[in-house]
């Protein structure tokens, strides 16, 4: 009788621990030092996306000139990402906090200038701060996953998306009320400084390893996986940077209606990643990424042909749900494949390749929009997403 009771208690404990709410609570507890960092990254880009029309008008930039400014931002991000493994090894448990404080500081100055060249120069440093923090926090999270045997990447990227959506909505309302971007970003900076205290972890940094060791084993996986992340980031950031303009300029919406474009993307990406946290481990990464790419392409195409803002919102929502799990699953896979001494290198290189898409998306959108209109820009994004199945095949062969 005692043995039977013990068996039932064991079965009940396993069932309780596998309940969705318990799984999420456990993941939140294990990620308590990382979630604030992902939220910090989200609030800046969410607010920036909502203020793009006003910033663009304030500095007097054409579509092409604003796209070039974002290309300079990409250069800053890539430069910082290449040195991120050394930064993480140097500052250890304080690396994520320091990178987040730096992110808060470098995003202030661009919001106060009125010149395209000065704005572009300052956005170089904003991109550098964002890229550095991105690699450092993803590297530490991947190490946490390996050490604890838990899948946490989708949850933390969901936090980025929810923070992005909340920030885009709040900034859109602030913009509708006539508040300039400077005070809004100053407030975000203060919030980040407070949150940086909670980002410190007892977990120290691993050695950053050698490029030779990482390339020798993971070259093909890094290349093709990085290109998949590139396309996903391109679709994501193209929508972040140009959805508000598409709603306002192409479809005749107001400022608050325009801000709903990037907010819809962030919200649905958060929902998609939150759902992905519940189903992770039950479906293969390859299958999820394959179908996610097709769904994302459908969303981009719907946004391109939308006759009214409501249909565009539906397109942004479908795009957000589809693209939400691509990057987290690729980063988690890269982290699991890498050895301890090469993990920071592998993740930094996959993220670096991916970030080219995250930041060259707006320039590409700008050049196409200037020549053919924003509808054609979103149609081009849909075509790029259809290349992911071929990239998946190449990555699987390399693996």
Quick tags:
399 residues, mainly alpha, 16 helices, 83% helix, 0% strand
Overview of this protein structure:
This protein is mostly helical. Helices cover 83% and strands 0% of the residues. Helix 13 packs antiparallel against helix 14. The longest helix has 40 residues. The protein is globular.
Summarize the structure in short:
The chain is mostly helical and 399 residues long. The chain has helices at residues 2-17, 20-30, 35-59, 63-91, 95-106, 116-148, 153-176, 181-195, 211-250, 255-279, 285-305, 309-323, 326-337, 343-372, 374-385, 388-398. The termini are far apart.
Per-chain topology:
Layout: H1 2-17, H2 20-30, H3 35-59, H4 63-91, H5 95-106, H6 116-148, H7 153-176, H8 181-195, H9 211-250, H10 255-279, H11 285-305, H12 309-323, H13 326-337, H14 343-372, H15 374-385, H16 388-398
Helix pairs in contact: 3-5, 3-6, 3-7, 3-8, 3-9, 3-10, 4-6, 4-14, 5-6, 5-8, 6-13, 6-14, 7-10, 9-10, 9-12, 9-13, 9-14, 9-15, 9-16, 10-12, 11-12, 11-13, 11-15, 11-16, 13-14, 14-15
Helix segment tally: 16
Structural class: mainly alpha
Number of strands: 0
Largest sheet: none
Tell me the fraction of residues in β-strands, as a range: under 5%
Helix content: over 70%
Determine Rg (CA atoms, Å): 21 Å
State the order of secondary-structure elements, H for helix, E for strand.
Answer: HHHHHHHHHHHHHHHH
* Shape by Cα distribution: globular
Could you tell me the mean pLDDT? 81
Residue windows where pLDDT falls under 50 for at least 5 positions: 7-17, 207-217
